[in-house]
Design brief:
By secondary structure, the chain is of the alpha/beta class. 54% of the residues lie in helices and 13% in strands. The radius of gyration is 21 Å and the shape is globular.
Length: 305
Amino acid sequence: MAALGWLTPRRRSATARSVLAGEASAEAARKSSQEAAGTTEEPQFPVHGDDRAAAFFDLDNTVMQGAALFHFGRGLYKRKFFETRELARFAWQQAWFRLAGVEDPEHMQEARDSALSIVKGHRVAELQSIGEEIYDEYMAERIWPGTRALAQAHLDAGQKVWLVTAAPVEIAQVIARRLGLTGALGTVAESVDGVYTGKLVGEPLHGPAKAEAVRALAAAEGLDLGRCAAYSDSHNDIPMLSLVGHPYAINPDSKLRKHARELDWRLRDYRTGRKAAKVGSPAAAGVGAVAGGTAAAIALHRRRR
């Protein structure tokens, strides 16, 4: 019977190499079928000179590795806006976000509440200025080159490009400006006479709210959503992606990847190293990330004493 062992299916967990091999094989099969049908030529996209088209990009884990709000928190800690124990919480939330590659509503809500309490009483102009510094310190090196190239292709075609994110609009506007994009839609924190009150205007720009913001902006700009593109990593943004004629799943979470494949949406994944780590040992990676973030916080705290 041992000689027939090769006939018996063996259950093995996927490795990074097997995932890569499988995806490469699927892509080769797809190209082969297109060639057989004589459909290898795809129409040019984005379409140059189409002023009724635009592109909408999610920010966290789509344009930038990790969450903008967590990086902003690191920068505020450096400037003594809050204590070490709060940074440890930020480090844990960021580790979870990077490991899971998906937004956890409870973590995101906790992070927003923390950020609002931290900025309460500070001037909007102060946070905008600090945001410029924090971008250089923590965010610039975390921009995904692949996604940046996609955004640039739309700009080169003469189209407007907007960030659409649950991050505070002030942070989103800094990032959009530094990347040369048109502008940003983000969560608005209430301010009176230029001072933050610690409350939100409405609710976070998340999930269906993003779709409504894009719809409203498209109407105001005279855009044809059927000719527009949208890019995101999260299944939470399926409402936004479903609005446009050209939806892209970028570094997608499992739910979005499945949905995109079912609807034949285009996928792009720029997380080769992160993906391998996730397939290998997610528990170990998570512990290491938390330990690293906490150690960095403690070291920074000690240097200041």
